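Thread title: Can someone regenerate the structure for this chain?

I was given the following input by a collaborator and told the matching structure tokens would be attached. They weren't. Posting the sequence so someone can regenerate them.
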Amino acid sequence: MATRPFRAPHHTISEAGLVGGRSIPMPGEISLAHNGVLFLDELPEFNRRTLEVLRQPLEDGSVTISRARSTTRFPADFMLVAALNPCPCGYRGDPRRSCQCTAPQVEKYMGKVSGPLLDRIDIHLEGPAVPFRELSASRPGTSSGQMREAVLAARMRQAARFGDGSGRGPRSNARMSSREIREHCRMDPAACELLRAAVADLGLSARAHDKVLRVARTISDLDAVDTISCAHVSEAINYRLLDRSLWQ
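Best answer:
Regenerated them for you:
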């Protein structure tokens, strides 16, 4: 109870194993990961129907299982972290190795992850292969302790903004409603114009628009500023564009 859970189910898991079920309802992996991390490695290898059941819990933070005699509600407020290759062979876009996958193979592989599910994931990052000079470099990067201090400072700003979370309001930027986004995500004119252009030109959905604002609000909290600037919005938009280049 003192440690946040980390669950990493195998890609052969069933729908009942992931969200819960059986004749007498039992919690699944998403409920066992409540207030922790659910890590799905090799995301396209999961059954598509199994992945689709994640859509509602990601929005609601809970899952309801209905049976003939009763209805059971389990908590499922987890952080979803997923990893996948750009293609079945894993070398698509690699400058050092050629990809042997055909276009239909890549399309079928990526088609296992639906657009609505991808739209519910806040940040999409592409991790290219790390060159040897960086692997062997002696220059230290940002330590875990430094990252922890920055995260704690940002969470303190969010706690001051939303309170202790004992009421109905959110406890973090990720849980802001559309109304709360408009109240707490104040942008300067340049940032507002950049977001308008992104929505119009890139075809961002209403959900993606709100997620960009939530991420931009968090980036500005890490910078310890109250107003979202153009740089914050630009970084948040780039976190939504990486998956588009991967799918195209």
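The chain has a mean pLDDT of 86.
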